[in-house]
Amino acid sequence: MTGPHARVTEDLLIVGAGGFARETAQAVRDTAAADRERGRAPRWRLAGHLDDDPALHGREVDGVPVLGGGELVHRHPYQDARVVVCVGSPRDYAVRARLVRRLALPERRYATVVHPTAAVSASSVLGPGSVLLAHCVLTAAVRVGAHVAVMPHTVLTHDDTVGDFATLASGVRLGGGVRLGRGAYVGAGALVRENTTLGAWSLTGMGSTVLADVPPGEVWAGSPARRLREAGGPALDELRADGEETGRGPGTRMRPETHTRPETRMGSTVG
Q1: What is the pTM of this model?
Q2: d(C-alpha 58, C-alpha 66), whole Å
Q3: Using only C-alpha atoms, what is the Rg of the chain?
Q4: pLDDT tens digits, the chain, 271 residues: what are they?
Q5: How far apart are the first and last CA of the chain?
Q6: CB within 8 A of 72, min separation 6: which ones?
Q7: CB atoms within 10 A of CB 170
Q8: What letter would DSSP give residue 194?
């Protein structure tokens, strides 16, 4: 393709080398293949993984090299590469937020990765650093924030709003008008009733049926979902930090990416 509208292929770094990172790498490869089938230049050139586990440096994960630690995002020849942070698990679903703060990159450096089989309506919006894996659906006027992980076969319906750093595991279904707070984690196969709110840094267990609002910083599970306990320490730390920054109570801010917190280590065991 030539001319003023020709696509420029950009280098892409995936921060992390666990399960989520590997799935994202596959999505990037699938996207490149789809681009080539359409006769256009691939959107991304997958440069490699970055991970803080020295044992992985110089090795390959599913054929993709692990180039070194996260600090390489600032160094030649990767200082202009686009980046996506792909870490997190139910054990510590706040790690992605901590790592984004540690990297301290401008928003323009972050890529948005959408698998070619995902269906995203023209009225929906995706934030920087977010990942939509295979067969996700965003139907109408869905707003997805920054650094959100949307796993395969997840369905977001009309007017859903998903806060920054949220995670939707595979097979989640959100009814219309659902609001997920910043950093909320929704387990695999969960169903969420329309016009329901899942609070910031809450965790909803896999297979749950959510019929009522879930408060910030709590773990709910079951069918119907009920409160089990408070969320783990890292999630509660994020919730408190959000409230301190905004002065509006915990978990109300959608994009608090500038506060200073202890550094985090990205580990290949975080998928």
Answers
A1: 0.89
A2: 6
A3: 18
A4: 444 446 789 999 999 999 999 999 999 999 999 999 999 999 999 999 999 999 999 999 999 999 999 999 999 999 999 999 999 999 999 999 999 999 999 999 999 999 999 999 999 999 999 999 999 999 999 999 999 999 999 999 999 999 999 999 999 999 999 999 999 999 999 999 999 999 999 999 999 999 999 999 999 999 999 999 999 999 999 999 998 765 555 444 433 332 223 334 444 333 3
A5: 37
A6: 13, 50, 78
A7: 18
A8: T
